[in-house]
Specification:
Rossmann fold, Histone, subunit A, 2 domains, 55% helix
Length: 311
């Protein structure tokens, strides 16, 4: 039976964008971004969004969906992405899922529970409180309220997923695991042929460092200053993306630009490690790993051939 979609994932800065563009051009695909920060308007440089020229090469979906002050959950992504995938397939084209946000990808492969209605005022107040929690304090709460999810998140998940897990437990009185068991999703998951692009650790670190330097040269601090002028701050959902709090600290004079850049490099490397841990532990066993140090032409040919064999 034919697969529903093709997917290219991997850690930040590994080279997913160029690989995906070339695969899309070979297969007649449209790209669905699987990135929890590229959905936010105005977060362009810091999230390494595809450039206008890249988006002109291949149609993209899932970019610039909401403003930085709007919460965009994995559940909402799954609903939106299912619609995009259906529309792409109806045009006779290939849905190509591209990005490194693991829990967004899993929400498509393993649909989330049917979410209960939550009081919006209570949710907003709770989000403000949780957003100010330090990491270890969040995990003490997670261990007490949802130990099953806490164990998974310690292997990799990210701050937004941690906050979401706490929100569900506190506002509903039940853990995520309980909701998955008692209120399962109504729709089946997508069947995707998944490729994970990876590189040796030192090579990936060099690419991360180069990306941070390029971001700063491209005007990352000016981008963040513009977002602050527009009324957004560190408590807004979009502004929790890696690097934005450090940029805010540099603009406030709490950090020098060099110190902020060093912190962004360190935080990005840690994020890449968490992503790889998640991929190794959470992706389906038939996910196929690619060595990103191989020539790009070889990688494209391998993915295209395997996709054609599947369909």
């Amino acid at each position: 039976m034919a697969r529903d979609a093709l997917a290219v994932t991997g850690p930040t800065a590994v080279g997913k964008t160029e690989l995906a563009l070339r695969i899309a051009e070979r297969t007649g695909a449209e790209i669905v971004s699987v990135d929890s920060r590229q959905v936010y308007r105005g977060l362009d440089i810091g999230t390494a969004k595809p450039t206008p020229a890249e988006r002109a090469r291949v149609p993209h979906h899932g970019i610039d969906v909401v403003d930085p002050g709007t919460r965009y959950s994995a559940g909402r992504f799954a609903r939106d992405a299912r619609r995009w995938v259906g529309e792409i397939r109806s045009r006779g084209r290939v849905p190509l899922l591209v990005g490194g946000t693991g829990f967004f990808l899993r929400a498509l492969l393993e649909p989330l529970f049917e979410e209960p209605p939550l009081d919006p005022d209570r949710r907003r107040r709770l989000e403000r409180v949780l957003a100010r929690m330090e990491g270890e304090r969040r995990f003490r709460w997670l261990d007490a309220l949802d130990p099953e999810s806490a164990a998974q998140l310690r292997r990799g998940g990210g701050r937004q997923r941690e906050l979401r897990t706490l929100e569900v437990a506190l506002l509903t009185g039940h853990s995520l695991g309980w909701w998955h068991r008692e209120r399962p999703a109504r729709e089946p998951g997508l069947d995707a042929l998944i490729f994970v692009l990876d590189r040796p650790r030192q090579a990936l670190d060099r690419r991360i460092d180069a990306r941070v330097d390029a971001m700063l040269r491209a005007g990352f601090l000016e981008e963040v200053a513009g977002l602050i002028d527009a009324g957004y701050g560190p408590d807004d959902p979009g502004m929790s993306a890696t690097g934005y709090s450090e940029a805010i600290a540099a603009l406030d004079g709490q950090l020098s630009v060099d110190d902020a850049a060093d912190r962004i490099r360190r935080m990005t490397r840690r994020y890449a490690r968490r992503q790889l841990t998640w991929f190794r532990n959470q992706l389906p066993p038939d996910a196929r790993w690619l060595d990103g140090t191989r020539p790009m032409d070889e990688l494209v040919e391998e993915v295209v051939e395997q996709w054609r064999n599947e369909v």
